[in-house]
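Write out the 3D structure for:
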Amino acid sequence: MRICRVALGEDPPRVDVVHRVAHAPQRDPAGVMRWQWHRLLTELSVGLERALADGPVASIGIDTWGVDYGLLDARGELLEPPISYRDPRTRGYRAVVERIGTRRLYELTGIQPLPLNTIFQLAAHDRAQLARAAHVVMLPELVVAHLTGEVVAEATSAGTTGLLDLTTGDWSSELCDAIALPRARLPGICPAGTPVGSWRSVPVHLVGGHDTASAVLGGARPGEAFVSAGTWLLVGREQSLPDTSVDAQVAGFTNEQGALGGIRLLRNVAGWWLVEECRRTWADTDLDRLLADAAAAPTTRVHVDVTDERFLAPSDMSHELRDAAGLDATASRATIVRTAIDSMAATTAKVVQSLPTGDGHELCGIRVFGGGSRSSLYRDALQHHTTLPVSLGPVEATAIGNALVQGIALGVFSDAPAARATLADQQEVT
């Protein structure tokens, strides 16, 4: 979790991280994997106070990961800490897919069926608890509600649910009915840039609430594939219209809403979660040493498909990686991490190669940005697996994209192209 001050009067924007907190979901006494929501809101307050202490603030925008949600009662009170998408309660999600129809679901939403999707989480949610809720609110807007008291939905976070009709841009009554969710529980959808109250007299604006939407706005370039590198690697490209063809469906692509319009056609690839889960299992906190050892380890030349659902939430990630790669039990930690990173790069290159071509969609490069872009080991491995040039975008792409939307809302920029024109070009990584 990061709280950033972004100065838009400079070219490029300056990002100062004023507060950063590591966090992860934890199992409650009943074994349900939940986010430490009270702690996150407490740290949010600490971060916002620090941001205010550093000088005037013109606007606040909130982005988080997608697909997860909170339940608010009629008084606006949170009924329970939000459940993490990595909780295994959705293991039976394919029954929901079959009831709706795989093709029908994709035609309506453009979203690939993954067990983490909100539609499957809500289908598995305790019905008595769900009946007590007046509102189902996605996490970015749940934070907005906490700050302002306003209950709304935003297009990019709504787009991660698998409940948004791509054609109408609104919630699908058909899909709500399919999971017995009253459509009225879902707030009205507003576009990024909409003002939604204030906190401490500072205006709050909706932004690309899904962090990937903000990251792509702040990090991607026209004509290039993008890799938003973090816990996940979100690999794809920007385009004007959705692609819900059979070919796109079979290739595994998801159509996600752009922060300021358009579509991000992408695939979810397991990213630095693989390494972080190994570290958790090993109780190894020295990431720099682990990565240095991995860089010195010989490549195994064995790559696993890290889009496989087996890597979503295994009890022991290092064992899962060893098993998938055919490594024996004596494989070193460095070898396991090197295998994970090489596999991330190989899978990224495969996804880029499978992006539909034609109609002006030929690619001239691959742009990597976000926190995971710091790893030269990943970037070098990616360059090894592709003939396209690999370039490096901003590490804080999410904060920049978030701020650009606020800048447009405040009149600093006229539109997305004008906002993006202020971003510095990066040198090609070879």
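The longest helix spans residues 333-354.
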